[in-house]
Amino acid sequence: MPCTLFCLQADTAEDMQAALCREKGKTMTLFFAILLGVSAFFFTLEPLFRRRVTFASPADDRLLAMYEDLLAEKEGIYAALKEIEFDRDLGKLSQEDYLALKQHYEEKAVAVLRTLDELSPVQDVSEEIEREIAAFRRQSLSASPAHHCPQCGNPYQQGDKFCAHCGHKLPLSN
Asked: In 12-152, where does DSSP find H-type helix?
């Protein structure tokens, strides 16, 4: 029943107030449902509009184009490898021809993958983290007097309870 019709039939001000509250509640629920739907829609479509590979600066558009071309070439090589395998299974290619073509495409794939690795904007993060940890440890160990683990002989810092190398419980140090 619409609010205005109900409000006109209401006997008291309390009934009208309750009807208005119910209508406001329905409006707010509808508003949040629409807001949630629109948010979900944009969240779903956002990856379609995002660039997949980002380089350090916008001036590297040439590298981005080369990278995308190499990705397409890699997919083409993989498709060709599947195709020649399928042709061999059907009997369209002899075993010798198959092996020659397979070797050719595998060599092309290796060259493309190496080039992609060189151009890749994503570096091996774990190696960089390990270098930073090692540098931090060298700096920390040089800043404090070195203590050595009685089990394995590796240095440790004051306050360490266990050896980072072997896990041996360290003696309490002052």
From this structure: 13-49, 61-90, 95-119, 125-143
